[in-house]
């Protein structure tokens, strides 16, 4: 009887072993040492380069781990001792390293975060609440200019500053319409749309993307032709990290004039009675004036120079004009005489010099400064965004000044649209915010000191101002800009409610384009491997049949495994009997 009982007991254990392993798998994945060893072995096998693997993979015990992690953290809120850290950081130097990383991360069953420049305002590219690996693209930064075609291939780990500098090295009459901050990574900037101070003349960065290379969920490298029209559409404004790993973009360069003009004008509410009139008029002029002119306006609560101890509102207008000073003064004398612009208040310069000026360097600074990545440099910050489609009234502006002064610190940045943006259909790329928008608002809050209470205070301020602005901004949906990442508008837990959660923020970022993005996502990444807190969700209705089939396959595979174990245990038991082990 004891023999029989032992055999049954062992058989039952055999049945339980696979289930036990399945239940333990998530716990296994959190064991960083085990994950590291498994991952490195997989990476070595996939790349056939075991010697190189050790140079591109950083575990938490590696002496360089912290420096590599911190180098591209651009928000100090996510650079604290309590911030979740990646189990592993991978810093590929070849495209094959990216392919292998996708395959091995998927095999292990751990989350993959992709970082190009680290400027994601909410740290989505380098933090997570679950165990994760960072694929840090900063080594993949090559830029190849083709002057004859007036094109360039740019790897996603390059910065905008590097792109601008390399174009200028080759030509003094070519440029590219993209962002103002030179340390922003190309991969995230272009995949989210890419706007800058030439968008009224030339549109967005994604409007000039000709081709792309992407590593898909199976580790294959796809280009425009092999990825197909839908996926190529999605990664131009829909955020690349939902669909794969962007390796590089092929972009069409634009011609820029030999001379451009810039100026900065400041006005304070306590010194000038017509500040409200200027802001009101700006709303009429900035989106409709000559396409060569782009006028950004900053609105900030500052300490009054007139009434000591009190706050006032200061406005700053910064301008990029694709032409000379004389033409700019003549244009604004006609369209915006309230500014009182004079020629001696305008600086003429080359396009590359304007790039340096917009990056807040002194006029005359060498363009080589654009090659400085400024690693491990960040402020504490919070950002939000809105779109304005009808001008805010003068009464509304006066009320807004009072609220901003009450709050004390949150600033606004008004970025005008119009021009070329009105000519391109909302559905041309995944980026939807085109005609009908007068300007985009960035809510801006920076602070210098670490502290939970400080952060609560400052983030509460910016959220209150955002709430106050509700009557003045777009509705149904209240639209937002993906590259001004804001987790306040919705978070995806990537569980059974993933689609419903994703729709909340998805329609704000992408309007009607959200539904097409979901179709693309469901087709190219049906198991949602490429996911984050605000990624594009899959359509569960489309995937339900596929999921059932996969579940059935998994059960059959499990049954085979259990059957094999049963067989081995029976053989083992028989051998023991032959050895007269049992009494």
UniProtKB/TrEMBL annotation:
Its cofactor is FAD. GO terms for molecular function: FAD binding; oxidoreductase activity. It comes from the Eukaryota. Residues 82-256 form the FAD-binding PCMH-type domain. Residues 1-31 form the signal peptide. GO terms for biological process: cannabinoid biosynthetic process. Gene3D superfamilies: 3.30.465.10, 3.40.462.20, Uridine Diphospho-n-acetylenolpyruvylglucosamine Reductase, domain 2 (3.30.43.10). Keywords: Disulfide bond, FAD, Flavoprotein, Glycoprotein, Signal. PROSITE patterns: FAD_PCMH. Belongs to the oxygen-dependent FAD-linked oxidoreductase family. PANTHER family: OS08G0158400 PROTEIN. This is FAD-binding PCMH-type domain-containing protein. It comes from Quercus rubra.
